[in-house]
Amino acid sequence: MNDTHTTRRDEIAAGLAEVERRIADACEAAGRARGEVTLVAISKTYPASDVRILAALGVRDVGENRDQEAAPKAADCADLSLTWHFVGQLQTNKARSVVSYADVIHSVDRERLAGALSREAVRAGRRLTCLVQVALGDEPGRGGVAPEGLAPLADAIAGAEGLVLGGVMAVAPLGADPAPAFARLRDLSEALRADHPGATVVSAGMSGDLAEAIAHGATHVRVGTALLGRRKPFVR
């Protein structure tokens, strides 16, 4: 057996065990069942071999944030039974490629993008779950629709052929206590469900703030660094 591969598997298994412990502890503290929270393993900058190790360890949800990396990785892992999540900012000209492999898109923040995804989903004969990314801080580079724009964008997704409105997603503002932002997202999610009862997904929380997200109702946490290690900078 290849020693390097064995070592990497051990590293990932240890990271996964620690993340699972943190999620379980956060669920217990919040009075929630562990089964209410889905771990989405963010594999950006890491190879398809790491995704295979995660799958062998029981992880079924994998996330990526750049189409040029995600598309070949998803193709490499097409034989695995995985749900692929696209979590990054998405340009409309990438819609066709992303629709070819992604099952859930977390970062829909404008009607034009929803329209492009709808057209490509219909063309490909697919039904795609879309989350509305909500901006909870003054960081335009991170994307997201303003909270007051959530309802009309959600209505547009719900009415678009080939798309399913899954719920909401947000990233906590940098350098601030994440709890108020996640509490705001929970309130927005509850308001959305009054009109769209099936939109139950709340995608919030990453390696550093997953406990706060779970305390405020997150159903999906997006974890990369704590699972796979500190990333190397992406080089174009």
From TrEMBL:
<dbReference type="Pfam" id="PF01168">
    <property type="entry name" value="Ala_racemase_N"/>
</dbReference>
<dbReference type="GO" id="GO:0030170">
    <property type="term" value="F:pyridoxal phosphate binding"/>
</dbReference>
<protein>
    <recommendedName>
        <fullName>Pyridoxal phosphate homeostasis protein</fullName>
    </recommendedName>
</protein>
<keyword id="KW-0663">Pyridoxal phosphate</keyword>
<dbReference type="InterPro" id="IPR001608">
    <property type="entry name" value="Ala_racemase_N"/>
</dbReference>
<feature type="domain" description="Alanine racemase N-terminal">
    <location>
        <begin position="31"/>
        <end position="230"/>
    </location>
</feature>
<comment type="similarity">
    <text>Belongs to the pyridoxal phosphate-binding protein YggS/PROSC family.</text>
</comment>
<feature type="modified residue" description="N6-(pyridoxal phosphate)lysine">
    <location>
        <position position="44"/>
    </location>
</feature>
<dbReference type="InterPro" id="IPR029066">
    <property type="entry name" value="PLP-binding_barrel"/>
</dbReference>
<comment type="function">
    <text>Pyridoxal 5'-phosphate (PLP)-binding protein, which is involved in PLP homeostasis.</text>
</comment>
<dbReference type="InterPro" id="IPR011078">
    <property type="entry name" value="PyrdxlP_homeostasis"/>
</dbReference>
